[in-house]
Every structure is written in structure tokens, then in C-alpha cells.
Write a structure and sequence with these properties.
about 220 residues, Rossmann fold, Arc Repressor Mutant, subunit A, 2 domains, 6-stranded parallel β-sheet, about 50% helix
Amino acid sequence: MEQKKITIISDSDSLFTLIENALGSDWILEQIKTKNFVGNIRADIFVIDSDCEGSQSLNLLKEMNQENPTSQKYIVVTKSTDYDIKRFLKYGATGLFPLKSYNSQSLSKLVEAIRNGYSYLDAEATRVVISEYQKLLIPKSMSNNSQFSCELLTEREIEILELLSFGLTNKEIGNSIYLSPYTVSNYINIILKKLNVPDRTSAAVTAIKNGWVSLS
């Protein structure tokens, strides 16, 4: 039986060791440091460390999924927030696995599930997915009683508004979505004008009140 290949994109050797110990000799494993990664690398499964240097894990996932939208499978080993979990799923992650709940048996099950075409989400990621699905079931008339509508905002503006609602500074928002603090500031000014509110706190309150973003 032909061995399958897992490529681990991580700046931490410990992650490679964990996976190697869990899977034994059933898989061919290789590790690539973030700075050495180039496109068009082939593997049956990619494992992407969300703690990659420079917080490049999301960009890597996004680029790789655009190159091979159907043929690749991606596991993200993550310690991420709800917001990060949603973005990883949006850009193609078929598995999410936090190191804090690591054990050899659960990791082996995860890899086999992904290998056989299933998705594998830990309990925290499952909670986030269920929460987002439940929002879709709420009639629009019940979730949006404001004179405003989130349709006023672009996808990027909503993304920044959600990060703003978590209390992040312009620099922290910029680091998360790879924009300069100056560019983030410009976006926030546009958001304030569109929502007709005086400051970022009022913008966050408006977004949360109307269900445009969730802090759960």
C-alpha cells in the first residue's frame, strides 16, 4: 500500500515530533519552515501551525487553497480565537485541532478522518460553527431592528468592525489582517461615517446590538 504524505508547515520542531510520535511509520512526514515555503508543493494533507512566525498561517492557507481548491486537505493546529477559527474555515481548513487537547489517539483519528474526505473539528471549533449556523436561522426582521444595515459596509469593513468590537487597537487589527495602522484608521473613519456614530465604541455597540458581529 502506497504511503501517504503529510507536509507540516511550522517553525516549531516540537509539532513535527508530536505528529511523528502519533502516526508512526504509516505516513511520510516532512517539515517546512514558514520562510522556506513556496507554492506548488504536493502532499495528501498539509498541517499548518497557526503560531507560524509573523502570523502568516492564514495567508498561507488562503494562497494554497486558491492554487488547489479541491485537491488539497488542510489541518490547522491552532490556539486561536473564535474570529480566527471562522477565518481558517472560510479559507479552506478541513480540520482544526488545538494543541491544548492533544493526544496521540485523537490526532490519529483526525488525520484518518481528513484522509477519508471528512472534516474534523474540535469541540471549540464546533461550538463556533453551530453558533454561526444558528444566526442564519434567525429571521432578518428579528436580528436587525436598526435603521442601519450591515449591507452598508464592505466585507473588509465588517471584518475590521468585528475586530474593533473585540477591543483591539488599530495596530492589533492591522497585525491580524496584514494592514498598516494608518490604513486601519482610514477604514474605521469610513465605518463611523457610514453608521453615523461618533466613535469606535459606538460602532462596536451598534454592530453587537444588531447581530452583525458576535463576541461569543
